Amino acid sequence: MMASSRRVGAACVFQLVSVVLTLCLWADPIKGDSHKLCSRCPGDLRNGTAVFNYCHANSTLVADGRCCVQKQARQEVVGLDLWNCSITKMEELLKVASTLVVLDLSDNPFENISFVFRGFTRLQEVVLPVTIDCPEGAAAWRSITLEMNKRICQGQKNTCNGTTEPSNLCPEYSVCEPDGPGLFQCSCIKGQHGYKCLRQDGFPMWMFLGIVGAGTMVITVFLWVTQRRKVKTM
């Protein structure tokens, strides 16, 4: 009787765990700020748009609301269609700056949004209202086209490889790294930090102890030999 009850209890626990796992697998994996962006405006990706085409051209991507996300890491938003969302400020876009590749901001009442693209190092296509210039202008993009009421900026250039080399502005012991369209930052090389990367990482404790230890050993041996000679002479 007791064994039968235990088997029934174990079966119930197993079924409960199975239900919980199933719910977790079917639950929307996009959470937090990224999910809010995907549902920022009603509707799904529009057929034939830049974000739609990019999403459907890659089998590792999937559409989710106004977003295009990675199938295996759906919190990673690579495409975002905010067409006609009545957006005036784009600070919330900074939440997906490091992953975004294609962005559609057409038909929105913007003023100037160039500043917001710092950190968008993977961005390759931006669709803007025709009245808005591409971030940092023609020097930051390989192609700029006008299409009806849209301005399309494509192919973000590597700012650190331009004709006017910004790396010359970086101090010694640092390297130039792209930081968005037309933007760059100077990062200290390994082992350097601080103002103008002039400080070295940490105090070389092991080297110091090695030198002190070796010096102590030499002095000890020297004194021991000297004392033995004195004893022999006496």
Automatic annotation (TrEMBL):
Record field: transmembrane: 205-225
PROSITE patterns in the record: EGF_1
Signal peptide: 1-32
BP-aspect Gene Ontology terms: positive regulation of osteoblast differentiation
Chain ranges of the EGF-like domain: 186-197
Keyword Zinc-finger in record: no
UniProt keyword list: Membrane, Signal, Transmembrane, Transmembrane helix
Name this protein carries in UniProt: EGF-like domain-containing protein
Species: Callorhinchus milii (Ghost shark)
